[in-house]
Specification:
The complex is a heterodimer of chains A (744) and B (297). Chain A is α/β, with parallel strands linked by helices. Chain B folds into 2 domains: 2-43 and 103-295, TIM Barrel; 46-101, Alpha-Beta Plaits (2-Layer Sandwich). The mean pLDDT of chain B is 93. The chains are: A alpha/beta (744), B alpha/beta (297). Chain A binds chain B through residues 550-551, 554-555, 557-559, 567, 639-642, 644-645, 672-673, 675-676, 678-680, 682-683, 686-687, and chain B through 10-11, 13, 18-19, 21, 53, 55, 57, 59, 94-96, 116-117, 119-120, 122-126.
Chain lengths: 744, 297
């Protein structure tokens, strides 16, 4: 290209420029854009959404001098724009939702009952955060191609709602084109009065490119990279929906890179500079130090894996990305690496190095499990091969799937307690479900059958409640523009919120699998098998939070086997429970014509549901629940090899929506041979794990950082599905990170 | 055939190459004053008390047949002189605060446990390390387990202090890929003083061993014991020109063992770690002999 800004040279200026600009956010844009008029509200939600797009066309664009890409539309959005929960985000993206605050109030009234009981936690009635633009469609056809497709479909159909959707999508795309033109004009204007040659060149490149892209399909590496960021940032601001995923980077970008290099347009160095700017965008835009968002910045990038024909993806772009992660201190994007036995050893070695250096932003996805797991659900192999991973670890088929994976965090241990009659208050009457009579159970098998049956009943009921709300999604905030990029929506002339996409799935996020396994095992062992106590005595201990029964608690904690700490029968039981849970949690219909899929993926719930009463494993009320599919940390020492041993016994193909193992290594970064970690990844592959997340921290260092935060400003830790500066976390989370580390 | 083992530690990353499982044999014929595993010294099973875990429920007092567990002035006490290490109290103890250290295991028991991590060995170039105590004191058992490992193609390492008959080395040589050889001091008197035995046999064995087997030398670096110039020079002289010595590890002294002495009813002698600076000098001296050094101090 000849005019790529050097990342090294401009890094500081770029960060400073972003910080200065975004520190004024959120800006009130109502004066420029106007606002939606409640009285003239369109009956058809997609038509109403067109008005929002109209507002967007009046928003100002902002071009950065020290940054090669154009992507900032001043929609009034927040600097830390998570767009994941109530209340709606500021700015035009939240306009439609703000017209209907009633849903919000109603939802919280419904939810609070279950939250108070610690049955589940939810912040929104659907997953509004973990989405992915159909980037490939935009890259291949440009907005013009998408408009043409929608226009053709509009001519073919009579249905008024379908036409309204298509018109809205077409209008949204044309507004995007206008916005690109505004970038072009603004960059030209800035170039005219720019004295610095390099910066002027940069502005002229933007001016020239924005005149064509993304109306037309990008032709170069730079144009393709810009298209991704343009779509992600601007569509998020206009739709008010969270586009957490920036795509399968190395797969999407490699062809452009290869062509540019072959034709002498681009050097590797320039490409790496462009990638560096692109990967730093989120960290530079967001305020992660002073006002860290509690769910992370939600930018996730997928690498590795394969293409739709099954051909391996591991190329020069993959390598540049891995180098950048090794060399720089990135909190975002989260690096989601897809692996298989077919990938070269060099790939594993580089991932091992990133772990060993304590970067703590990496999740590993096992293609050999996740691909068959999703195919088994009835999805086409070619589509499944293009899966990416959501804001945390939620798998999503890029281009074809709209899923909701992180919105209902259910406490599995609480379900057990409800069945034991602990902390159940008026639950059974409230739900009109018959309360089980467990005291008639003569064996563990009978007890367990009763548990499974009732859990199924409860989960169906919960799904039904959420589906009722999800049905309102369309009127609440349809997203025709985003929908237009997803296969199926234009074809079906239906918005994504109505199930227009090719696949429409949901899942619960069950919290406390390890705690549940340990608790059921304690009941099996101490009550039914060894008869150390009666069920009544156990229940009495739980009701009193083990006060006056410290001996019993000690016995349950230390003398009854635990998942991840011991082996043998406990692993067998864990396997049975995992099998049954995967069946209970999948197949329930959602409101979009799709179904629920099983997952063991945690996010925030293991902390926020800690008020779940005492559990039979000896955990007291207030102690955290276990995370993902991993062992409970409330009960002492676990060991990676024990966890792997247990993992090998579980059929992870039953978890298409991911079962995450969160591995915390109590090792100091840079102190360990990186081959240890690449070996752990490969072993994880060998035992058939699903998803694994790494966190390498030294508890002593964390404690130090807690005392002297100013000396540890760049210490990055993995919290759950996201990473953050350790010193920016609140004290409770900081302590949790330290305790978690001590548990290993 | 049975051996007495006091711990099997998975995911060891400091006991030889790669990710390993370390099997700790009970019983040692050295009594290093700084030993951080005092519970490894006696060859027979013994009772260990973790005071921090104790909730004071006194279930052990009822269980004890020799009245070694008693409540004296309202406090739970342990009388080591009357205790026979019978383990009755450990059986009942609700928190495992009382624990019998040392279990009799068969070769099959050990193999079942260590084979669980076969993926980790294969992927990391790791394997199994036999440590202690002094693993070679249970030579018959050790030989059997090593044979079994070799039959399965697993990399084996034996961690030894070397104070054993040369014939024992000869017996396990065919099944041992690597020796981790501890050299506590080069000075005969110092060695006698701090470990209870002199180092004649240890050094003689090493001379023979370094001709025929890969070795990693491990030196515990302890202030006022082996940090003198004289000691360092002696190490250098002794270790030079040995192709089979693949690395030398300088291991820091740490005080983790102190609390364990209390737990087994003995008192600990306190040492200090060799100065960082001194350890660097030591490293440089060894490196000047062309020896690959890993300094963990």
């Amino acid at each position: 290209m000849g005019n790529v800004l050097s990342y090294e040279k401009y890094r500081e200026q770029f960060y400073a420029e972003f910080d200065e600009y975004y520190s004024t956010y959120p800006v009130d844009v109502e004066k420029e854009t106007g606002t939606l008029d409640q009285e003239t509200r369109e009956k058809n939600p997609c038509k109403e959404k067109m008005k929002v797009y109209g507002l967007a066309s009046r928003c100002k664009v902002h071009v950065f001098r020290n940054f090669p890409f154009y992507f900032e539309l001043c929609t009034g959005r927040a600097r830390n724009g998570l767009t994941a929960s109530f209340p709606p985000e500021p700015g035009i993206g939240g306009e439609m939702m703000r017209e209907n605050r009633e849903i919000e109030r109603e939802f919280f009234a419904f939810r609070d009952y279950y939250k108070d009981l610690n049955v589940f936690i939810s912040f929104f009635f659907t997953d509004f955060a973990h989405h992915c633009i159909g980037y490939e469609k935009v890259l291949n056809y440009g907005l013009d191609g998408i408009i043409a497709q929608a226009q053709k479909k509009r001519e073919q159909i009579e249905d008024a709602d379908g036409r309204a959707f298509l018109e809205s999508a077409i209008y949204g795309c044309s507004v995007l084109k206008e916005i690109a033109q505004s970038f072009s004009a603004e960059a030209s204007r800035l170039a005219d009065c720019e004295r610095d040659d390099e910066i002027r060149e940069n502005l002229l490149t933007i001016a020239e490119t924005a005149g064509r892209i993304p109306a037309m399909p990008p032709q170069t590496f730079y144009e393709a990279l810009n298209t991704i960021w343009f779509m992600r940032e601007i569509v998020m601001g206009m739709e008010g929906i969270g586009i957490a995923i920036i795509g399968h980077f190395d797969r999407l970008l490699y062809p452009y890179y290869k062509k540019d290099v072959e034709e002498g347009r681009l050097t590797r160095r320039e490409a790496k500079d462009l990638l560096s700017f692109a990967l730093n965008l989120t960290d530079a835009k967001w305020d992660l130090r002073n006002h860290p968002p509690d769910g992370g910045a939600n930018t996730a990038m997928t690498i590795g894996g394969c293409d739709k024909n099954g051909k391996l993806v591991y190329n020069e772009v993959t390598q540049m990305i891995l180098e950048i992660f090794e060399e720089q201190e990135l909190v975002n994007p989260k690096l989601q690496a897809r692996i298989s036995h077919r990938h070269p050893i060099a790939y594993f070695e580089k991932l091992g190095k990133i772990i060993a250096k304590g970067k703590n932003v990496l999740s590993i996805f096992n293609d050999e499990i996740l691909i068959p797991a999703n195919v088994r659900q009835g999805k086409e192999l070619a589509d499944v091969r293009l899966y990416v991973a959501g804001g945390c670890q939620e798998p999503l088929l890029s281009e074809t799937e709209i899923n909701c994976r992180a919105y209902i965090y259910v406490s599995l241990p609480k379900l057990l307690l409800l069945i034991l009659g602990v902390g159940d208050r008026d639950f059974w009457i409230h739900e009109s479900i018959e309360r089980p009579d467990i005291h008639t159970c003569l064996s563990y098998a009978e007890f367990y059958a009763c548990f499974v049956g009732k859990v199924r009943q409860i989960m169906y009921q919960v799904a039904k409640y959420f589906n009722r709300y999800e049905k309102m999604w369309y009127t609440y905030n349809p997203c025709p523009l985003y929908s237009a990029t997803i296969t199926g929506c234009i074809e079906n002339a239906r918005d994504m919120t109505q199930g227009g996409a090719k696949y429409n799935t949901s899942s619960f996020s069950p919290v406390g699998f390890g705690t549940l396994v340990d608790s059921l095992f304690a009941i099996k062992k101490a009550v039914f098998d060894d008869k150390n106590m009666t069920l009544e005595e156990m229940i009495k201990c739980l009701n009193s939070n083990f006060s006056d029964c410290e001996r019993t608690r000690a016995f349950l904690v230390h003398r009854v086997d635990k998942w991840g700490r011991d082996s043998g029968e406990i692993n067998q039981l864990a396997s049975e429970i995992s099998e049954d849970l995967s069946q209970i949690l999948s197949g329930i219909p959602n409101s979009r014509g799709g179904w629920f899929e099983s997952s063991l993926f945690t996010n925030t719930g293991y902390v926020s549901l800690r008020d779940t009463e005492a559990t039979p494993d000896g955990r007291k009320q207030g102690e955290i629940l276990s995370r993902g599919m991993g062992p409970s940390e409330a009960v002492g020492q676990t060991n990676i090899s024990r966890i792997m041993e247990g993992l090998a016994k579980l059929r992870m193909e039953n978890y298409p929506a991911s079962a995450v193992l969160y591995l915390d290594f109590p090792f100091s970064p840079n102190n360990m041979d990186s081959t240890i970690f690449s070996a752990v990844i490969r072993s994880f592959l060998d035992v058939g794990g699903n998803v694994v997340d790494f966190n390498l921290t030294d508890a002593t260092v964390l404690e130090e950082a807690q005392k002297n935060p100013e000396r540890y400003k760049n210490l990055i830790v993995r919290v759950w599905g996201f990473s953050a500066y350790f010193t920016s976390l609140d004290e409770e989370l900081q302590n949790e990170m330290i305790n978690r580390n001590r548990a290993h | 055939m049975k051996g007495t083992i006091f711990n099997i530690q998975h995911f060891s990353v400091h006991d030889g190459p790669g990710i390993r499982t370390t099997v700790f044999f009970k019983g040692c014929n050295l009594k290093c004053a700084w030993c951080h595993n005092p519970e490894s010294q006696n060859a027979t099973p013994e009772l260990m008390f973790h005071a921090k875990k104790c909730i004071g429920c006194a279930a052990c007092v009822d269980a004890c047949e020799t009245k070694a567990r008693q409540i004296v002035n309202g406090r739970l006490t342990h009388l080591h002189e009357t205790c026979t290490d019978c383990g009755k109290c450990a059986e009942i103890c609700y928190t495992k605060a009382l624990e019998i250290i040392g279990q009799e295991c068969t070769v099959e028991d050990i193999m079942e446990e260590v084979m669980k991590d076969i993926h980790l060995y294969n992927n990391s170039g790791g394997g199994i390390t036999f440590s202690g105590g002094e693993a070679m004191l249970q030579i018959d058992f050790l030989e059997e387990v090593l044979k079994e490992c070799k039959a399965l193609g697993i990399h084996t390492a034996v961690d030894t202090a070397g104070n054993i008959p040369w014939e024992y080395f000869q017996r396990i040589l065919p099944y041992t890929d690597l020796f981790l050889y501890d050299l506590k001091s080069m000075d005969c008197n110092l060695h006698q003083k701090f470990t209870g035995v002199d180092n004649d046999r240890i050094l003689n064995n090493l001379i023979k061993l370094k001709k025929i087997s890969p070795i990693w030398i491990r030196i515990p670096c302890i202030k006022n014991v082996n940090d003198s110039k004289k000691e360092m020079d002696a190490y250098c002289r002794y270790l030079q020109h040995a192709e089979n010595i693949q690395r030398i590890e300088l291991i820091p002294y740490h005080s983790y063992g102190e609390s364990k002495y209390k737990m087994v009813g003995r008192s600990a002698e306190i040492f200090a770690q060799m100065d960082k600076q001194t350890s660097q000098i030591f490293q440089e001296k060894l490196e000047a002999q062309g020896l690959p050094v890993f300094n963990y101090c």
